[in-house]
Sequence to fold (1061 residues):
Amino acid sequence: MPSCVDHRLRARQLPDAINRPPGAKLSSVEQSPCCLPYTELSGVRSVEHWSMAMGRVAPSVDEGTGEQRQGVVGLGETVGELRAAYESGGTRSLAWRQAQLRGLLRLLAEEEVAAFRALREDLGKHHAEAYRDEIGMLVKSANAALREVEKWMAPEKVWVPLIAFPARARVEPEPLGVVLVFACWNVPLGLSLEPLVGAVAAGNAVALKPSELAPATARFLGDNIGKYMDAAAVKVIQGGAEVGEQLMEHRWDKVLFTGSPRIARVVMAAAAKHLTPVALELGGKCPCIFDTMGGSARDLQTAVNRVVGAKWSSCAGQACLAIDYVLVEERFVPVLIKALKSTLKRFFTDSDHMARIVNARHFQRLRGLLQDPSVAASVLLGGTLDTKNLYIEPTILLNPPLDSAIMTEEIFGPLLPIITVKKIEDSVAFVRARPRPLAVYAFTKNAALRRRIVDETSSGSVTFNDAVVQYGIDSLPFGGVGESGFGQYHGKYSFEMFSHKKAVLTRGYLIELTARYPPWDDSKISMMRQLYRYNYVGFVLTFLGLKK
Amino acid sequence: MAPGLGVMGEKPAAATTKHLSLGSMASGLREVYESGRTKDMEWRQSQLRGLISLLTDKEEEIFDVLHEDLGKHRGESFRDELGILVKSVKYTLQNLKKWAAPEKAINSCSLLLQHLLHHAHHSAEAPLVAFPATAMVVPEPLGVVLIFSCWNFPLGLALEPLSGALAAGNAVVLKPSELAPSTAAFLAANIPKYLDSRAVKVVLGGPNVGEELMEHRWDKLLFTGSERVGRIIMTKAAKHLTPVALELGSKCPCIVDWLDGKRDRQVAVNRIIGAKWSTCAGQACIAIDHILVEENFAPILIELMKSTLKRFMAKPGGMARILNEKHFQRLSAYLEDTKVAASVVHGGCIDPKTLTIEPTILLNPPVDSDVMTEEIFGPILPIITVKKIEDSIAFLKPKPKPLAIYAFTTNESLKRRIVEETSSGSVTFNDAVVQYALESVPFGGVGHSGFGQYHGKYSFELFSNKKAVFRRSFLIEFMFRYPPWDDSKIGTLRHVFSYSYILLFLTLLGLRR
Fold:
């Protein structure tokens, strides 16, 4: 369903925005001692917590209760089946884990077209973007897990001091049990199946709750997972907020939630009742520090390609890792804007090549961000909204007020504020003064600046001279810190997230040191003193009574 | 059992002033953290050295406060708290630089070599398409962290995590348990003298103070104590999205297989007694809770335990006392159950005046009695008999996952079955409790015994953020990453994600689709 509206990129010169002294705005932030209040992903505040974030469309009363009652019974059974499947021990074997990963790979290969169709239906994603960000990425991850899982499962032998001789110790990963994954709607396939890869590789039974805001993908998963994977141990549970709430009534051995901080709070508080460990993948305003490229036109173009890719080509900016705003030196603004404009024109010759906004509510939220008059005045490029097709033109703003919603809330859409700083080094203080994001990006050739960014700012990840691509590197952990969440996954980190590291110590009977036991006397304490220092000579001397 | 978070105090005025002062303390710590001083490697090392000096200089005082709070003998205090801490902090000091160093995740040169030498499919997580690139994992401190410690090892459970939090470069608030008041006062008086008092604070108080602390935002929270309070803490932490680690208790079972050698039997019994009655009189989360043994071996085991107990507890003061009256009442109540009382085969004497309970052995108390459904946390040891020792696995499987499972056995297949078929924080064969002293294995629970692991490097990691740092260059730019889309770009992406570089190369040259 390609959009039929002509989305020619229109540049609107707004002298007010360009001429506004940007330094003034920045300094006001630098003076403020602590973080700005963090507001949630979703701008709507009038609906109740859970149902709202899960984006429930309220059903009619009788329909709702009937569905709910049935839901509770059905869910309890489903959870019971998962627990039984796990307790049977079948999910622990290497063969089972490999079979699930192979099944997942077959699903991705055989149902590719259906997956493309679902992603296009839910988000208007072009199948190339869907392949690059979801299906291809998943094939890579599942292949890597299949190749590595045996190695990951192997117990790790660890050092034991001589004092414990004869003894050996190892750390043995074991599955956690029955785990629950809440996926998000923006990368509805990737954020469902990437954690699933880790959870089955670690030998767990899994309940997957896709987001109901991407209904076609949720249906796709519901229809296909059972065909390609062990249907008794991997279940897809579809539904909205009320189903999410009911799921959290049950005891899980781990919960991974991807979504907004507000729902994360509800999920974590519900998990506390059962002492369930949680991992929360939240959002954050990921800044992009854009240094001058040392005059190299080619490098500038490469950098701009990557910025445009990481903003408008990742689900139209509806991605937790997408660039939220750019920090750039005043004098470099015209060069950057010019390059952004020409690149956008080249990349998005067809509006069909950018995803649309997920739904009317988010569309309204983004419109709301632009409706603030002082924000509207800062629009340099784009700004056209197509309500019918839920399409927002790639939009660039120059120095919108720092206290406006667009600069205090996570944007999660195709709007890119450019904030100017006097010197690029000032951006470190700018980033530090705000909540810790999932990622910090910086395009720079300045090694000292890179050092300062790594040392002085805090974030889930830092990527230099590119953006979003760190998501595809299996050897790097993916996850947030502070307001952007906690718990890391991808590659071996996914396996570890869904595993328990069991310490296994084996001792022998050969040597018995009775200095460990009462009745106590001073010589026993002296002997223990030597032992804790691993001073074996001293110990022997004390033992022989030659030393006190 | 540990710091309870009850309802707020009755005096709202007092609570408000305290609230304010806690608030200013929290923001003061954040300021200190933001100044960057705690990130400095030298600062971290100086704090660890400070801890060692504290433990060395104040040894006598430490023995005194632990004796006051729990009646622990200095031998036991040294073995379980002081000595272990000094060893552990020294180990951290030795290894800290290594732990704090960035870890290379992939290196583009080695990557290229890998790809040239091997078929692409055999090299792990190595996308050549990212070339040239370097990827690192850089540990960074989390910020301002909060530690709630427990009363049973009031020094160890406070300072062991503290050393990890400091090693990782955090500012720290330590809230010792008010149920071990002498140790808490000792920590409050001495920590500011030996550590950076601007970045490390000790907060004294009961449940009200705990609750007030939880009103503030922390970057990590480690709680050691009971399930009930663990739930409250986690619920409160959810408000600020604070990651928590919960170290809870549980019923740690000890499987005792038939042992042939007389000496082996004696050694096993020594270790069992050490792990039950000599670790704070059984008031320890990793103490043995109950024993599983074959029917025909039970009498032999019990006789040997009796004679060994007589030798170990020959002198008075060899065993700690019960913490307080409340816990004494709780333990006495177990023995008041008539069926349980009938199962006593050794001990059973209680002295409310000195808060002591004689080492007590029960043989087959009803498995649905409180002593077999609740965590005992005291010097009472139920022995449960099974027909065959392998049956103990089925006995354990339906029970909540404990912090530790112990098994005295030389039977390799039983060992394997225990490791593979049961779940617990740790498994120790032929000894008990000693795994706590091993820095190279993680300490922590699973399921009902909690989550989050520490000790040694795991403590450093508990209080660190593993930051992914990825650096690319501008040398190579693949336009197939970007729109406008066409079929050849998708074809190229397919080769990229399957790491088939030869096909990728051919596609780029236009020789293949």
About this structure: Chain A touches chain B through 117 residues (CB under 8 Å). Residues 1-72 of chain A have pLDDT under 50 and may be disordered.
